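Action item from last week, closing it out:
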Amino acid sequence: MKVSENKNETNIIHINDNKTVLNQIKHEFINVGETLAQVKYNTSVKVSEKGTVIVSQFKQEISSRGDEVFYFSNDTAIFEGGIKEAKSAFEKVDFDKLNLSLIQPSFTVVKPLKWDNNNNYESNEPISWSEWGSAVEKALDELSLNREEDVFSECIDNVILLARGKYKKTNENKLKRFFNNLFK
């Protein structure tokens, strides 16, 4: 049996007219034989009034075979600092689409990069895609409930909506806030 390897990705970017808010969904996957490994980055970036970059990212890693999921990890990061530090911390984000003239090239990091694991699973006993979906929803619910009202809350809200991909099913206020923030 010949094992073939295929690597693919999607990259969806929404940016406001002022180029100060960027929302990005980047999905990479590699197929080796029957196994599919995926990483999905849901990222929201905002240029602050002081010229820093505020970033929130929800990263999903998954390993599956057919209808079975053997591994997943859902992680969240938030960060505030200069563009140089942001590019180093989040290599998969297309920061160059922002209005770079508004951003400090280097800035003392206000909020250092910190990854939090929301939930994960690894076992020889697989779970279903439905169980994986429930774990993702639980992670996003907890992220929403545990966030503070601060400079990061707008980006975190946007990331939650991006990760859910259910814009029409979210409540109307969140949807309005998402699109208002998206096109500010």
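Closing note: The longest helix spans residues 129-146.
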